[in-house]
Automatic annotation (TrEMBL):
InterPro entries: DYW_dom, E_motif, PPR_At4g14850-like_plant, PPR_rpt, TPR-like_helical_dom_sf
UniProt KW Repeat keyword: yes
SUPFAM superfamilies: TPR-like
Protein name listed in UniProt: DYW domain-containing protein
Gene3D superfamilies per record: Tetratricopeptide repeat domain
Renumbered ranges of PPR repeats: 126-160, 193-223, 224-258, 292-322, 323-357, 460-494
Entry keywords, A to Z: Repeat, Transit peptide
Length: 630
DNA sequence: GTAGGGTTAG
């Protein structure tokens, strides 16, 4: 802290008296004010500021800057307003630097309108004024405003610097924005700055261009731990967990230590790949960060998504503090794993704990209702969410309700709700309704709905399949051919079914029609044995292909060798008998496999968990956690 | 003097 006496020298020239006070009295007043500001004595400083104002006096900028810092520390919005009013009192125009400080204060108080107002009133603005505002809009996701400000700034011939670019890059919604900004960066010769680079890496990752992110990263001569986190996080967020893990190894070899942010991304990578063993290994290394909220949240999510609910519950129970994300993660995790009632109970506990639910939490709650067919609960939470929690229902909430109504046989109500939506239904919403049509066997509606999906998402192979099968069933071969032509024209193929299983920390993939697995012959043999064993206890292999193909989601062609059956056979052969068999797959499980796995869990006395893109099935002793409702 | 980078839930 600077001494008060040096400050006094600084503001002496500013003593232009317009009142009857003697210059000594004025000095005393200013002296006192400065002292209170530097002592961070907010109440006294404000009182003192009042007397200055009544005598038409202003102190120097550094002192006010100190006072504003004090307001920020105390989050004293009202007091900040008083300081601002004082500085503009009687038509005074504070100097540029001080207005920048004020703008920054309003930004930190999340009062962007006030910040922008001051900005508009400035007779002159420098690069910091612009950057403060641009960065604020970027952070608050007002991306259009941020980009527009950059353009206005250039028009006023104020040259952006590394601060400006690293902030505004966050607001790029498409590659064309990035390319434009990259031009500016190169023109100013700022491309080697580490902040600019990490912002570029982030934006490429966000836009789903991890290869571009990697090339920016690889061109870097010197980096730091944060850039490593950017690139690892970028891959983890883009469902490229294996790449993220490879980079993590590289980071360690380069001599960097993994801290919370890195480990969180590593966990996310494990979560995406359902690598329970590796995730558990990471858990051992992060016990020293056991108070880190974000890391614990990621850990809970990892255990939920790997289907290891016991571990998830344990971590959640032991957390020292929990935020809305912790609770939401656990609520959704329970719901996805088939524990809907426990999810709703936890939601009530969350409210009792005083944590306010948000948009995502309610999605989890409605998800729990929809996956257990809890019609009344679903309606209750949906109808009351606005009144009870102040949350407007969005697409995801409507989606859960449409799913709930549709699967519960209230297809008409589902359609009615879709038509009543406040927001425009998108392809996902219509696809949800299509799934309900399938369950209810309503082909007339399915045809209409599938067409709607294709209007919004012409690349949706599942909906083409639905249409094609409906036409085939009613012998409308012309229409069948038309659909096939359209699919060929778009170069579309059904995604092949694929299942993964982790054995000895290695992932084994099983894909329909793929012969490349080294133990393929043994796996086939084991599967055939298993099928025979199951037929012995009442398994009847499903043969109704057409029915199976009537799917909103995509289904595999050959029922007998669905990839999860191969993965199960392999798991039974290789994993010790006490271990739970965990399988992750890219498509939703079909009815035949569901029966197959229930019986297999009984015959082989094994617990099996299957994670599909939407939810999880825990098979044990002939039963599934979903209660055959999915 | 005032502005900039990484991590968690659907």
């Amino acid at each position: 802290m600077k001494s008060v006496t040096t400050k006094l020298k600084l503001f002496r020239p500013a003593l232009t008296s317009r009142c009857s006070y003697s210059s000594t009295d004025q000095t005393l007043l200013l002296n006192e004010f400065t002292r209170f500001c530097y002592q961070r004595d907010l109440p006294r400083a404000l009182k003192s500021m009042d007397s200055l104002q009544s005598h038409g006096l202003w102190a120097d900028s550094a002192t006010y800057s100190e006072l504003i810092k004090c307001c920020l520390d105390h989050r004293a919005v009202h007091e900040g307003n008083l300081v601002c009013r004082h500085l503009y009192f009687n038509g005074n125009q504070p100097m540029l630097f001080l207005v920048n400080v004020l703008i920054n204060m309003y930004v930190k108080f999340n009062l962007l309108d006030k910040a922008h107002n001051l900005f508009d009133k400035m007779p002159q603005r420098n690069v910091i004024s612009w950057t403060t505002l641009i960065s604020a809009y970027s952070k608050h996701k007002h991306h259009q405003k941020a980009l527009k400000l950059l353009v206005l700034m250039l028009r006023e011939s104020v040259r952006p610097n590394v601060y400006t670019y690293s902030s505004v890059l966050r607001s790029c919604n498409g590659m064309s924005d990035v390319r434009m900004i990259q031009c500016g960066i190169v023109k100013e010769g700022l491309e080697s700055d580490v902040f600019v680079r990490s912002a570029l890496i982030d934006v490429f990752a966000k836009l789903g261009e991890p290869e571009d992110a990697l090339s920016v990263f690889d061109e870097m001569v010197t980096g730091d731990a944060i850039v490593w986190n950017s690139i690892i996080g970028g891959f983890a967020q883009n469902n490229k967990g294996d790449d993220a893990l490879k980079l993590f190894k590289r980071m360690k070899r380069a001599g960097f230590t993994a801290e919370q942010a890195t480990l969180t991304s590593v966990l996310r990578a494990c979560t995406g790949l359902a690598l329970l063993e590796l995730g558990m290994q990471a858990h051992v290394h992060i016990v020293k960060y056991d108070r880190d909220l974000i890391l614990n949240n990621a850990l809970v999510d990892m255990y939920c998504k790997c289907g290891s609910l016991e571990d998830a519950r344990r971590v959640f129970r032991q957390m020292k503090e929990r935020d809305v994300i912790s609770w939401s993660t656990m609520v959704s995790g329970l719901a996805q794993n088939g524990y809907s009632h426990e999810a709703l109970k936890l939601f009530e506990a969350m409210k009792a704990s005083g944590t306010k639910p948000n948009y995502v939490t309610v999605v989890g709650v409605l998800f729990a209702c929809s996956h257990a067919g809890l019609l009344e609960d679903g309606w209750y939470y949906f109808r009351e969410m606005k009144k009870l929690y102040g949350i407007e229902p969005g697409r995801e909430h409507y989606g859960c309700m449409i799913d709930l109504l549709g699967k519960a046989g209230k297809l008409e109500d589902a359609v009615k709700l879709l038509n009543e939506m406040d927001c425009e239904p998108d392809a996902v919403t219509w696809r949800t309704l299509l799934g309900a049509c399938r369950v209810q066997g309503n082909m007339v509606l399915a045809e209409y709905v599938a067409k709607k999906v294709l209007e919004l998402d012409p690349e949706d192979a599942g909906s083409y399949t639905v249409l094609s099968n409906i036409y085939a069933n009613s012998q409308r071969w012309d229409s069948v051919e038309e659909i096939r032509t359209r699919m060929r024209y778009r170069g579309m193929k059904k995604e092949p079914g694929c299942s993964w299983i982790e054995v000895n920390k290695k992932i084994h993939a099983f894909i329909i029609g793929d012969e490349s697995h080294p133990m393929k012959a043994e796996v086939d043999k084991k599967l055939n044995q298993l099928i025979h064993g199951l037929i012995g206890i009442g398994y009847v292999p499903e043969t109704d292909f057409v029915l199976q193909d009537l799917e909103g989601e995509q289904m595999e062609d050959s029922l007998r060798h669905h990839s999860e059956k191969l993965a199960l056979a392999f798991g039974l052969m290789t994993l010790p008998s006490e271990k739970v068999i965990r399988i992750r797959k890219n498509l939703r499980i079909c009815g035949d496999c569901h029966v197959f796995f229930k019986l297999a869990s009984k015959l082989e006395r094994r617990s099996v968990v299957i994670r599909d893109p939407i939810r999880y099935h825990h098979f044990e002793d002939g039963k599934c956690s979903c209660g055959d409702y999915w």
